[in-house]
Known about the structure:
The structure holds 2 protein chains of 2 kinds. Chain A has 6 helices and 9 strands; from the N terminus they run E-H-E-E-H-E-E-H-H-E-E-H-E-E-H. By secondary structure, chain A is α+β, with helices and mostly antiparallel strands. In chain A, strands 5, 6, 7, 8 and 9 form a 5-stranded antiparallel β-sheet that branches. Chain A has a 4-stranded antiparallel β-sheet with strand order 2-3-1-4. In chain A, a hairpin with a 6-residue loop joins strand 2 (about 30-40) and strand 3. The model of chain A is unreliable at about 180-184 (pLDDT under 50). By secondary structure, chain B is α/β, with parallel strands linked by helices. In chain B, the strands form 4 sheets. Chain B has a 6-stranded parallel β-sheet with strand order 3-2-4-5-7-6. In chain B, strands 11-10-9-12-13-14 form a 6-stranded parallel β-sheet, sandwiched between helices. In chain B, helix 2 packs across helix 3 (about 45-55), helix 4 (about 70-80) crosses helix 19 (about 440-450) and helix 13 (about 280-285) crosses helix 16. The termini of chain B are far apart. The interface of A and B includes residues 73, 171 and 177 of A. Bound molecules: thiamine diphosphate and magnesium ion.
Amino acid sequence: MKQEFTISVFTEDHIGILGQITIILTRRQINIDSFTASESAVKGVYLLTIVVNTTSEMVQKVARQMEKLIDVLKVFVHTSDQIIYQEIALFKVTTNGLMSGNVIDHIVRSHYARILEVSPEYMVIEKTGNKIEISELLSQLEPFGLLQFAKSGRVAITKQVKELNAYLKEMDEANRYKTEPTLN
Amino acid sequence: MKTEQEKEQATMELNGQEHITGAEAILQCLIEEGVDTIFGYPGGAIMPIYDKLMDYEDRLRHILTRHEQGAAHAAQAYAMVTGRPGICFATSGPGATNLVTGIANAFLDSVPVVFITAQVVSGLIGTDAFQETDIIGVSMPVTKWNCQVKKPQDIPEVIAKAFYIAKTGRPGPVLIDITKDAQLEKLNFKYKKCDYIRSYNPHIPLHTKAIESAAIMINHAERPLILAGHGVLISGAEDELKAFAEKTGIPVASTLLGLSGFPSDHRLFTGLLGMHGNYGPNLLTNEADLIIAVGMRFDDRVTGNLKKYAKKATIIHIEIDEAEINKNVIVDVEIHNDAKEALRCLIPLVKENSFEKWIREFRICDKIEYEKVIKPETKPDKGEIRMGEVVTLISEITKGEAIIVTDVGQNQMYAARYYKFNHPNSLVTSGGMGTMGFGLPAGIGAKIGRPDKIVVTFVGDGGLQMTIQELGTILQYNVPVKIIVLNNNFLGMVRQWQDMFFEKRYASTKLVNPDFVMIANAYNIPAKKVSKREELRSSMEEMLAGEGPFLLDIVIEKEGNVFPMVEPGSSVSEVRLTY
Lengths: 184, 579
Ligand SMILES: Cc1ncc(C[n+]2csc(CCOP(=O)(O)OP(=O)(O)O)c2C)c(N)n1
Ligand SMILES: [Mg+2]
């Protein structure tokens, strides 16, 4: 059964890593719902947050393939209930529509959105939330003459208690483990 | 008065550093890594390296092939027979893209090869300059790791990293793309081998818990079977595998690339797995109650139809590459470890045992296969020469002491099926990719890597012509490789499929061939054409007696088919002996 998974990939700063990660997904015909790259809490380590819709067997397979990449430190796979996540959306609507009353103002407030800029021609609204919340706001603003709409990928924080640093330390110890030299 | 530069150089020399060009640094790095042989082909962007190579001739031997693909295959074969990474050079643009088949081949078969390609000067990258191709992008999906170097001072560190990555864990090819300016500019050279990369951990602590549960299963199994893969050879676990099999009495079957990891004449050896493998191990995979897979990846050519694969068996998978575990076959016990270490740990935990009744089932299958397939193949008394008898004769004459190199197709399957391997790493073949044209250049690489061994290369008339220009390499370096052309005037393996699955419609598989003897002679390589059974042995003896290279063009029956066969989509237990 397919469901939504958020894959968090912690990587070294290596050119080309984005390509390598997307190749793994495209070879398996997995569509990327969203893809975000950012810094992480650990200096020099980057975090890619990828949302995909696939089966749990398949997501485990691709996660292992990602972790196999030389410059990938650690990969986590989470279902939506294991993470806290947000997306950010920006809407540009005509001010004309707005003039028709404080309807928009009301919509903005009831959706916990905010207005970033107002000019005689347009206004820009920002909304942070999940996919459903954003699409709800979108459907309400559309009748007022939507000029532009842009949405970020997902950013996510995991609920798990063990943090990347602890994993890095473990990996470091494992990496230092060397087998005894063999005789031959 | 010393100039600033001279002063700097003096301090550097005190620190054990040398001020040399990037090109020279590359060669120094290779020497530090114990390299003495390079396969390659020059061109504009790589000229600084080749120029320096002349000063290093006493320490670095360069083999100029006739095509970069040939250099890549030769370097891979060299690595497979020596256990040391192969080295391959190519220039930018077409030189680099000509490597791609060879890189992909090494990637699928987990062979460490360090590819060094040259790139246009860094200022021109991205401008579609003359002979600029994005080889980093092109090779990304077929290398274990790749990296572009634009500054000379980065060369030592990147090369050190490349060797470490290529050799450790599940080995594989790496590619370093070095710009021409980085080759020409100078750096303060100091080399330190790499033994640690934070994000890459090839040293996996033993999964003792999993090994213990595996031991319990092994001790309770009634019809266990070991599937030995290339990982046995890569980790050097041949002795451990033998000790494990002998102690437990468990029969052993091998994948194509696992061949020679376990002696072919061992009483516990049951043969080759997969599409053209032996009858017993295919049929009885589906009767086993326990499968112990060691260093293999359940490739579709081995498993046949996955839905009907080993359904009665509990599966233990010893594998160093975690991404291979549960990829094709869901396993019961994962032992994500090096094969040698895992087997070592497992041996004391398993009890001495024997499975005579179970092994008898394999022997019964062997008898059936012998009567139906092997005997008519290896001991025909009439008709034209068959591939099976050729390989069997070579096996007898060389007493299993040769290194066997193959191309791809029927010739490959016959070589794998009928040669009796006695020594580890004595089969060099293209497994995962099935690359026609591999045989001739791989034979060169194998012979250069192991000059002490007889190297016999089996090639088809089709595959030979994909890299036939490498006869020039044999001529130039007098590489004493013995080439046997199994000449059926067909792209035999494809013709077999047309015969079986396309109503005998032989679309574009018939070959009109040149006179291979004349071609060989033109390269000053002694050669002989054989079409009579009576002349087979004497011509082989003649070929092997000579010091130099030799080409034997053997006229084979035109429409022979390889059996047994697990047809595509069929289960391994539906393996057919005839059709
Ligand atoms: C580069 C490449 N192209 C095409 C194929 C498909 N192919 C597999 S076997 C084969 C026929 C090989 O003919 P030949 O070399 O004469 O060997 P034979 O099977 O006759 O022994 C072909 C075309 C391949 N494996 N590799
Ligand atoms: Mg042929």
